[in-house]
Known about the structure:
Blueprint lengths: L2 H9 L4 E6 L3 H12 L4 E4 L15 E2 L3 H10 L2 H20 L4 E10 L2 H18 L8 E4 H7 L10 E10 L1 H14 L3 E3 L2 E8 L5 E8 L5 E11 L5 H8 L7 E11 L9 E4 L8 E6 L2 E5 L3 E2 L12 H12 L11 E10 L15 E5 L6 E5 L5 H16 L25 H8 L3 H11 L3 H10 L15 H10 L5 H8 L2 H4 L1 H18 L3
Parallel strand pairs: 1-2, 1-10, 2-7, 4-12, 10-18
Antiparallel strand pairs: 3-6, 4-6, 5-6, 8-9, 9-10, 11-14, 11-15, 11-16, 12-13, 13-14, 17-18
Amino acid sequence: MNRKEQLNKISSTSQFDLCIIGGGASGAGIALDASLRGLKVLLIDKFDFAGQTTSKSTKLIHGGVRYLEQAVKKLDWEQYKMVQKSLHERDTLLRNAPHLTRPLPLLTPCYNWFEGIYLTIGLKLYEWIAGSHSIGASKWLSRKEALTYIPELKQKNLSSAVLYYDGQLDDARYCLAILQKAETLGATILNYAEAVQFEKDTSGKLTALQIKDTLSGNTFAVQSKVFINATGPFADHVRQMANPNLKSRMKVSRGAHVVLPPNLMKNETAILVPKTDDGRVLFIIPWQDHLLVGTTDEEDKLSETPDLEAYEIPYLLSYVNRYLEKEVRPEEITSGFAGQRPLLGKAEKGSDTKSLVRDHEVEIDTASQLVSIMGGKWTTYRLMAKDTLDQIYENIWQTTPVDCTSEKQLLHGAEGYRFEDWQKLSEQYQVSSATAQHLMKKYGAFAQKVLALTDAQPALKELIQPNHPFIKAEIVYVIQEEMAMTSHDVLYRRLGLALRDAQAAKASEEMVENFLKTYHFE
């Protein structure tokens, strides 16, 4: 994808079928689904793709163990249905982008026999609901067996453990892969494009959108048959821009994470803390050669720049130290981040955001005909897209929906992908096995295209920073092929170095800025 080409496509298109505001998971999913249905699509984002909630998740593809517990305890059918469809979608996300996902074993330590029985029954039910979409059998482990999976577990009072499986994803790159696939199917995709003001006809229906290119400062208008608001936590802003009479619908829940060095847990099994002292679920997860710990869940004030707060660090580390033998200190944290979840609920201010169902709703404003997709979660992004488009066909265009085919659509980098090809790449281009494997997991079948840049410039094989497998060719590739426009785009979302090691990313900023000046052709 090239940003100048995308701008040219916009200027040469008189009217789009859909204009999607928001380049996170839900907006990307709609762009792909709509492109597969043959629609003319434009997607814009005020900042970078996956710049907000989408890239700040706990990196899990899951049905929601906690939601299942709530469904059983409260006989809540809505919670149960959400778990059911999430487990079905978990399988789809794993299958459609195998380079960016993997099944993840999770272990829950038990400290008495009742805990073991309770969790075993619950996770067997979780597995049963998944049915044919199960990705691994759960089992009750003895104390000795538990320690073979995670030798670093604190052994005092440990009686047993329960093992089950969910999925893990590289969230920012997964979103990008959806957008890249949509673009190859004809969609126009533009980052750093802010929705400024709607234009309406005499009946109040939206007809056009004024857009500001925040990099150049230029403004332009696009016409579209339908406008879709897929801005997650910021949905109310766009809704009220289209119709000031609409009441706010969104609540924001804050989720903070810390990242720790890889030597704290050497195996690839994660820890599920099934219930913290304040009733949350927390994960300690091997993630891209590091250890990801999260997440918090509390009401927050909407922000475009949520950051990890100092008070959250001791809270998160307290559970690491409760479950691991070796004590972890704050100075060992290599990075951290916080995001905001878009929750749709009628709860009063100050109510418990943990209790809100993470499901979605498609709203069509009768006055403006703005379509807003609100709520939801990463795992069900594809269903959110399908429901949005089906509602547009049925309620705006008043016709039978064209079939949705996104369930079996391999994403960018998945076609022809074989992880074991890293060995050929390592030999052919004389890069380390760590770098070759890293490239396969980031770019899939396009890993060789990254390394091909080193044919003319062997210096691009050099590591960006010691102790990390990233190479300089990746910087060039993401600038030329993935519309990375700033050093933040490169280091946080395209490469992900900043989320692993904040100091290494900071030390790389000047280098990345120089690459941006050299390789941008706008």
